[in-house]
Amino acid sequence: xxxxxxxxxxxxxxxxxxxxxxxxxxxxxxxxxxxxxxxxxxxxxxxxxxxxxxxxxxxxxxxxxxxxxxxxxxxxxxxxxxxxxxxxxxxxxxxxxxxxxxxxxxxxxxxxxxxxxxxxxxxxxxxxxxxxxxxxxxxxxxxxxxxxxxxxxxxxxxxxxxxxxxxxxxxxxxxxxxxxxxxxxxxxxxxxxxxxxxxxxxxxxxxxxxxxxxxxxxxxxxxxxxxxxxxxxxxxxxxxxxxxxxxxxxxxxxxxxxxxxxxxxxxxxxxxxxxxxxxxxxxxxxxxxxxxxxxxxxxxxxxxxxxxxxxxxxxxxxxxxxxxxxxxxxxxxxxxxxxxxxxxx
Length: 345
Fold this sequence. Notes:
alpha/beta
């Protein structure tokens, strides 16, 4: 028989074991987000790197309101703007396995690729998409769905696809063919991919300093720039660059992400409400983005800018080596994307 001292030791050991197991479960539980307030409402922090008065911000306010109304107040969203999160990189740091600060964020796929699946880079390859229809068809394709299916391993998932628009070329002389870019000094972002693309087209790429592009263009330091038309109009670069070539050389796909722990903590009804609202406002924003670009082009023409539309395939063929080089780590996805896009032509 077991004596009293042994029984007490066994009881203590069992109790200690139980407490350690409970502590372990408690620690694991801390990793799950508890977004419920005392009144049972679900708090949702939404991060976007726009100002409150940016036209896109209105879609997120409508999105947030729809979540609250359709859940009958059970979900309580709060939007955080650019004054709290200066860019999409900052947003991405506060979601997923890195942090539990934000629940839903809008992020460019290129930044997603930096911290998760390299396959996301495919949408940013130069001249892979001919137009918005191509870009949006790929975003909703089974190929892209397979890429996105890997994201929960990184603590997040995609709700819908927004539009960051295409980048185009502004210049001091008209660009119709790749040979027209020979010897031009083109201002660009700090991206090896964009710089190699411009070099392949015969230009000399140089990284421009944010806020100094207009003065540099005026002084003739650059003879052109690759940028979005919205930026070109906003910064009045048309005053010093008379030509715009609508090359659509790089597309910026934005994904609306939700933290995986937050997603798993939601009821099925609330998941459905979020998913449907996310897709609804993404579709509206995409159409508005295209319409907005068309309006910008007309406005630039009225301001005296000479706008032309170079033949896409000339530039696409001239940059094939760049796409193949940068897609080496996800070559299978790239080939599938090319096959899909060729079928749409």
